[in-house]
Amino acid sequence: MVRWEERRGSAGGPGPALSAPSAGTMSPPKENVSLLFKLYCLTVMTLVAATYTVALRYTRTVETELYFSTTAVCITEVIKLFLSVGILAKETGSVARLITSLKENVFGSPIELLKLSVPSLVYALQNNMAFVALSNLDAAVYQVTYQLKIPCTALCTVLMLNRTLSKLQWFSVFMLCGGVTLVQWKPAQTTKVQVEQNPWLGFGAIAVAVLCSGFAGVYFEKVLKSSDTSLWVRNIQMYLSGIVVTLFGVYMSDGAQVLEKGFFYGYTYYVWFVIFLASVGGLYTSVVVKYTDNIMKGFSAAAAIVLSTVASVILFGLQITVTFFLGALLVCISIYLYGLPRQDTTKIHPSETKSSKERLATV
């Protein structure tokens, strides 16, 4: 059974979708694998994160019949469910064991399904906000701003899991916030996008997505640590809830239009490509978590920002400003500093009696 600790990636971006490393989270035991394989893992993760953001942005700005983003989020959950069942089948080793595991842990545990419905609801909101944000903001601006999920996750980890951050990590968090502020000070403009956009709506959507990412990621990690249940069983529980939640979202947001035009209205090969990246990217996180460390993931996040920026310049005519460049540079440096090795602060000793608020106050 899979036992390492990992939070679910989301369609908000596998970079998007790949969650920021949890503050104070111990990395799972790394197996002895070649540097070449590690570089392969990081290369794939970087390309998925950058490509997902740029491709999603493209599908929301082309002058064609616009698809319903709520249906795309729902289809992503369905694909993730089938992929997780397939991985669990390989993990259990036989169809009989798979069925037994599903009966005991999924269909026979309504309380656990209800427990996982909380992050499912939050992730559904986050994933839909990603579509709203990338409908109104350039991919590069989104990629940089979305890194605010790191300080949000750090704060949730301190408050919900009673962990601490090193002074260097707190410094990197404030540096990241400063970098994002510079990026938003004079946002870079695009010259090849003709559709109507509302930057303030985009920034608001990112803010909601960031809060959702931080809370849901840490909540899911806490659920994982509460029992020895397989990661893939937990994913199946969450994706089942996620399908119900996202279907309700389709009904509430686009119900009448979906009934009139069809569930897959406006879908193109590019839209299916975005859904594929969102589905595979989130599950691919497990491989990255197992075989790499926070420093390498930090480099990957920074590289994804660079690639998204270059792609935005070429595809959308993004005009880089000085403040955007400096802000993006600060964000990349802060991500690297956040993942530097430090003393283990994940173990809470019996003698520790400080509350979460007191721990925050002493930093």
What does this entry look like structurally?
There is one protein chain. Helix content is 70%, strand content 1%. The protein contains 13 helices and 2 strands, in the order H-H-H-H-H-H-H-E-H-H-H-H-E-H-H. It has helices spanning 35-59, 69-92, 95-107, 110-136, 139-145, 149-161, 167-185, 199-225, 231-261, 269-291, 294-316, 322-338, 356-361; strands at 189-190, 318-319. Strands 1-2 form a two-stranded antiparallel sheet. Helix 1 (35-59) runs parallel beside helix 11 (294-316), helix 2 (69-92) runs antiparallel to helix 9 (231-261) and helix 6 packs parallel to helix 8. The longest helix is centred in the C-terminal third of the chain and has 31 residues, at 231-261. The protein is globular. The chain starts with 34 loop residues before the first helix and ends with a helix.
